[in-house]
Amino acid sequence: VSRQLKEEIRRGFARLEDPLAGLLAMLESSSDWKGKGHSLGYCITTELQLWIKAHPAVPQPGTKLKKLQARVLGMLSQCPANLLDPLISIYQLHTADRNYLLEHVSHLYLQGSYKEAARLSIKLKLQPDQDVEKMCTPLLLQDKANLVEDYVAEYPELQRKLLQTLDTWCDPNFNIRDITRPYQGLSRYKPDKFNRRVLSKLVFRLLERFSIDSALCPNVTNQRHLRTLNYLFYKRFVEKTMSEENWADHIQSTVGENRWLQGHLAQSLLRHCGARGAARWARHCRLPPEMLPWAVAEELQELHIQDRVEEVTKADNYEASKKKDYYQLPIPRGNIHFLQTWEETLQCWEKVLQPGQVVGVDMEWKPSFGMVGKPRVALLQLALKDEVFLLDLPQLLEQAEAEGEKEKLPHFIQMLYSDAAITKLGYGMSGDLSSLAATCSALKDTEKQMQGVVDLLAVDKQVDGLSPEHSHEERGARQPEKGLSLLVHHVLGKPLDKTEQLSNWEKRPLREEQILYAASDAYCLLEIYERLCKDPQNFGLGSDLMDSLVGKQSKKPRAKKQLNKQEAPSPSGQECQGPRTEPSRPAAPISPQQFSVVCDNMLQGLGRYLRCLGVDVRLLDNEDDHRKAAEIARQEGRVILTSGLPYQTLRSQVGEGRCFSVNCSEKAKEQALQVLQHFNVQLSLSDIFSRCQ
Fold first, then answer.
1. pLDDT per position as a tens digit, 129-159
2. Closest to 200 (Cα-Cα) out of 233, 226, 224, 181
3. What is the C-alpha radius of gyration for the chain, rounded to an integer number of angstroms?
4. CB atoms near residue 438 (< 10 Å)
5. Which residues contact 97 (CB under 8 A, 6 or more apart)?
6. CATH number, domain at 346?
7. Which of 183, 98, 99 lies closest to 143, judged by CA?
8. According to the model, what pLDDT value does residue 268 have?
9. Fewer CB in a 10 Å sphere around the end CB: N or C, the chain?
10. Backbone dihedral angles phi then psi of residue 360, each to the nearest 5 degrees
11. Domain-embedded: residue 668
12. Burial classification of residue 201, based on how many CB atoms lie within 10 Å of its CB (0-12 exposed, 13-18 middle, 19 or more buried)
């Protein structure tokens, strides 16, 4: 607003006998202020607000102010958001009769103006006198979850009431149509946005935002734990990529004393292990006998000590044979140090913080399996040429805080990452550092200060011959390697044993298998780096690439986030698609309107992003089987976008080039760029939001 206009507005106010009535008369006779943006009406209103502060007027008589308040209340439902606060301030609506304000909001609600009623309630702080379920239900049906969050933001009691209501709706026995029936004629009603899956996500978001214990929402929490239970059975009995001890740890921490989950566990054990195997596991997991199916309970009575001895012997033999197939640490077990005291850690620092040192860095945390909160680092691994240090981060942080020196650990880590004279090796460092920042807030800027860092995730994209399918054929039935394990296999000859990857890293003491896994994950980085530096050409790397990496890298390469160490990322989306071939001619350019895809259920963020760019997208629901993507692709001529293990299955069910594997650890924007580049989709400004209604 020009200075001249501001002065003219203020002179106008000075000439008016009653500026408040004058402003209302102007707004009532005009409509330009109803639009978004800075209209003339908005400028005049905000200038009056400032003018009143500078010229405190004689207080308005009570009856006169009440009349003005009644008039302005009638206008507020039509106001853009930027006018609400100035008008409420000018006409002192916070001092108006509370019952009168509640009655006005109730009138808006009965008219079906639910958003306006909620917005005005927030501004006038009326929520404690309203029914939170009644106010929020139509907003959720209109997909206005953000407004619902704002509505309860300042009221812990309302937050709890809302969460308990949402949790009740998520009970599998609750008929959700009982909620939607009264609102059938609701404008902007989005039934696809009102289901247990969406509501469950909202519950976990609210629990995290308002730091509320998830025990308040047993239905949603149980359903999430049940999905975790099913996932663990898949990892152990279908993929066969999780050790017994590791699996048992997670099963016990997931199920605990919850009788509902114990019942599901008993049924899953019977289905996957048979009655005899289920009985053994039921005893191991201490399931109450009354929770067991009849066949399992009978087997439990007949079990003898000898059965357990045979089972242990069989497992030991299996572990011994397995060692031959995987990468083994070349240093003695005595050179792996698990550090829980500051005295030990200081000795570690002296060795690590030496100019010219090369350090392999890795971190482990307990997998969240979709529960609330960011992962917190439980173990920091530092590998040197002759020894590996495993730092028990929770214990060291607790000890430092008790001694009043909580900056001690962040100080060491910042010194390590910012010293250009020390080469730090990692794999997907960005994900590790974001978890480190969640563990210790003092480390949130570490990524910006990094120097002398080599992220091997950026290097392995350029290493020749990395093909999950190729390595899969060589090894028969095992799951195809990916991520760091694939790089280790290609450069050092054997893959990493990842059966401990999903361990409970917070449980103490760590098992021997966990200690060896953690040490191997960090130490293998040293061996890969040394091999690539010695003979870069053998791996299809230019010597100039290695020259740029050896101790000189001051900025991190583009790293992939790994918020959950459930799956290491593939080296890149395109390399998941098969062995490398000679470069073929690029595909002919197409527009987003000509590009049709079906997104697997782990890529819903990517699907929504592509839809915003004008791409024709179908999304699988969380409950859908991955194979449904192949059915849709064949029926509608769509390209499948998927990630990880399902890619191996889906690519064989559609034509060549009709299935693309995306890196699940990247953000939706990076995934979308990768897809558009691969299929040569040419984007124009008019495509953006072209599919939005």
1. 999 999 999 999 999 999 999 999 999 999 9
2. 224
3. 31
4. 17
5. none
6. 3.30.420.10
7. 183
8. 94
9. C
10. -85, 125
11. yes
12. middle
Distance of alpha carbon 439 from alpha carbon 364, whole angstroms: 12
Rounded Cα gap, residues 214 and 258, in angstroms:
14
Mean pLDDT of the chain: 84
Residue at token pair 């791996």:
539
Left if phi > 0, otherwise alpha if psi is -120 to 50, otherwise beta: which for 493? left
- The whole-number average pLDDT for the span 293-301 is 86
Helix pair angle (244-255, 512-534), 10° resolution: 120
* Token pair 């059966």: residue: 499
Contacts of 653 (CB under 8 A, 6+ apart): 627, 630, 633, 634, 659
- Separation between Cα atoms, residue 78 and residue 691, nearest integer Å: 28
Burial pattern 333-368, b for ≥16 Cβ within 10 A else e, equals: eeebbbbbebeebeebbeebeeeebbbbbbbbbbbb
Rounded Cα distance, 549 and 555, in Å: 10
Name which of 58-62, 198-202, 483-487 the model is least confident about: 58-62
Domain boundary (494, 521, 548) is at 548
pLDDT at 583: 40
Q: Half-sphere exposure of residue 109, counting CA atoms within 13 Å on the CB side?
A: 20
CA–CA separation, 562 and 433 (whole Å): 10
Please give the tally of structural domains in the chain.
3
| Residue carrying structure tokens 């050179």 | 335
Q: For residue 57, name the pLDDT band (cuts at 50, 70, 90).
A: low
- Write out the two tokens for 441: 């807030």
Q: What is the mean pLDDT of residues 57-63?
A: 64
Q: List, for residues 524-579, the tens digit of each pLDDT value.
A: 999 999 988 888 878 777 665 445 454 444 343 434 334 344 333 333 333 333 33
pLDDT band at 322 (very low <50, low <70, confident <90, very high): low
Do 531 and 433 reside in the same domain of the chain?
A: yes
Question: Which pair of tokens denotes residue 588?
Answer: 């002919």
Distance CA 626, CA 647 (A): 9
3-state secondary structure of 65: helix
- Closest-CA residue to 82 (of 37, 148, 29): 37
What CATH code is carried by the domain that includes residue 620? 3.40.50
With tokens 């490398």, the residue in question is: 580
Q: Residue 433 belongs to what domain range?
A: 336-464+483-548
pLDDT at 319 over 80: no
CA distance 198 to 194: 6
**For residues 339 and 389, what is the distance between their CA atoms, to the nearest angstrom?**
7
Question: What SS3 state is found at 68?
Answer: helix
CA-CA-CA-CA torsion sign (484, 488, 491, 493): negative
